[in-house]
Design a protein that fits this description.
The protein is an alpha/beta fold. The protein is built from 17 helices and five strands.
Length: 353
């Protein structure tokens, strides 16, 4: 059995397994039909599909940690919706048994083992997530004021706050790392805790991207060092702000950057790497189910970079969860933030000279 065959089996049988989980959950608790009706059945099936999507990506990456992290995230989200650990555990047990039954040995047993690994940690997983904003961090008050303004919908004052801080001597790098990055993480946490809406999350992200663009005159003023970067999110990933920050940090380090944005097809990435003769390629994945696509990009760049061997750096949430995950996708390294991405890239280029 290969991880590819297991992933393929899970994807092919996903709808059947999700339906089976829903049928069994409603049969085991007769009150669910009266409480939630047909919409409840649909939501249960959607949740099962999502579980299976994350299970498939964890199997593909051979990382139990990825699925356990997803379960930990789901536990916090469901707790805010009034569902208990026991509710989640029962659902996961039903999924585990349905996977084992539907796929059979050896695929079903391998997938069930990943689920069991997460179930074994469920009791230790927190029911709330801690804030990303702390008084111990640099520019903590600036970050809080900025976030409060965004959540109140006051983009103009938020922009003025940042521009004034830069004029007063706060570096653009510090603004990116300690204000933009931390508040973006905090916005995601508050959505998970059901404290803000999806619309608020989207507004805050769009406002931050606009304010980032107002800092570009300072970013692009750095003398060039003769190195080139191509940066992109994989196909299907619409969360571009992280990799955009990475590209901006490379610009501040004097690199010529070619930022391709969100949801970039493999062909577009490979073509840009070839045309630009990139020294480094930075690939971002936001969700664990985007990790297989990162592996596809890495393989395609390697295979088609004839006469040129760019170094490949990966980043994004799944790689923070499992720090060894970059090896499984075939990259040259991983960086947890934009500053470390530049340091890693420069080291890789020197070693490759």
């Amino acid at each position: 059995m290969t991880t590819a065959s297991l992933t393929s089996a899970l994807e092919e049988q996903s709808e059947r397994i999700a339906t089976l989980v829903t049928e069994r959950q409603f049969a085991a608790d007769r009150t669910l039909e009266a409480r939630f009706g047909e919409r409840g059945r649909q939501k249960c099936t959607e949740d099962a599909r999502r579980h299976l999507e994350y299970l498939s990506s964890a199997a593909s990456a051979e990382s139990d940690t990825l699925f356990a992290d997803y379960v930990a995230w789901a536990k916090i989200l469901l707790a805010r919706l009034g569902l208990s650990d026991d509710d989640l555990a029962k659902n996961l047990v039903l999924m585990r048994d349905a996977v084992r039954e539907t796929l059979g040995a050896p695929h079903g047993d391998a997938a069930a083992r990943i689920v069991d690994s997460a179930l074994g940690r469920l009791g230790e997983m927190p029911s709330v997530s801690e804030s990303f904003l702390s008084d111990r961090q640099p520019h903590a008050e600036l970050a809080r004021r900025y976030l409060d303004l965004l959540l109140s919908g006051d983009r103009q004052t938020a922009s003025t706050l940042i521009l004034d801080a830069v004029r007063d001597g706060v570096s653009v790098r510090d603004i990116y790392l300690h204000v933009f990055q931390r508040t973006q993480h905090e916005i995601g946490r508050r959505w998970q805790m059901n404290e803000i809406s999806v619309a608020q999350e989207h507004f805050c992200t769009a406002a931050t991207q606009l304010i980032m663009s107002q800092l570009y005159p300072r970013i692009f003023a750095t003398p060039r060092v003769g190195r080139r970067l191509v940066a992109a999110c994989v196909g299907g990933d619409l969360h571009e702000i992280g990799v955009r920050m990475v590209a901006d940090f490379f610009e501040m380090a004097g690199w010529d950057t070619y930022y391709l944005g969100a949801n970039t097809p493999i062909e577009g990435i490979v073509e840009s790497v070839s045309q630009r003769r990139a020294h480094v390629v930075a690939i971002s994945a936001t969700m664990s189910y985007h990790v297989p696509a990162v592996g596809d990009v890495v393989r395609s760049v390697r295979e088609r970079s004839t006469g040129w061997a760019p170094r490949i750096v990966v980043g994004g949430y799944p790689f923070r969860v499992d720090p060894d995950l970059w090896r499984s996708v075939g990259a040259d390294g991983y960086a947890p933030d934009a500053s470390e991405a530049v340091a890693l890239a420069e080291r890789l280029v020197r070693d490759n000279a």
